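Field log, afternoon session.

UNIT: design team B
ACTIVITY: writing a sequence onto a fixed backbone
BACKBONE:
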């Protein structure tokens, strides 16, 4: 077998920045992203409708943004609570307790 070679330019996608899925803040510095941001996902094993895909991942820049997405996703996930629903590696019921505890501490801070 002989190989014929020719020079080819290949285009590939490269990550140049990260965007917070809640507040749209953009971070260009990977080390800052890696050290101070959080990536998590949510999933369920139930049959879904189009508005709730079974798996989705998020990047957040702060605890405030994490809490906001957690609450929003929990309300969407509630329909799938009995189908191995998970968010940020927590079972649905545990995440719900966490959200309730966060709500309480926000009320006390206000
Ligand atoms: Zn954010």
């Amino acid at each position: 077998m002989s190989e014929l070679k020719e020079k080819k330019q290949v285009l590939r996608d490269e990550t140049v920045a990260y965007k917070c899925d809640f507040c749209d803040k953009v971070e260009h510095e990977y080390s800052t992203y890696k050290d101070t941001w959080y990536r998590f996902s949510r999933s369920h094993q139930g049959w879904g409708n189009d508005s709730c895909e079974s798996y989705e991942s998020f990047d957040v820049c702060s605890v405030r943004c994490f809490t906001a997405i957690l609450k929003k996703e929990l309300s969407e996930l509630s329909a799938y609570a009995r189908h191995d629903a998970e968010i940020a590696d927590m079972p649905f019921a545990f995440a719900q307790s966490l959200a309730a505890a966060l709500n309480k501490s926000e009320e006390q801070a206000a």
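LOG NOTE: DSSP finds three helices and six strands in the chain.
NEXT ACTIVITY: expression trials, pending approval
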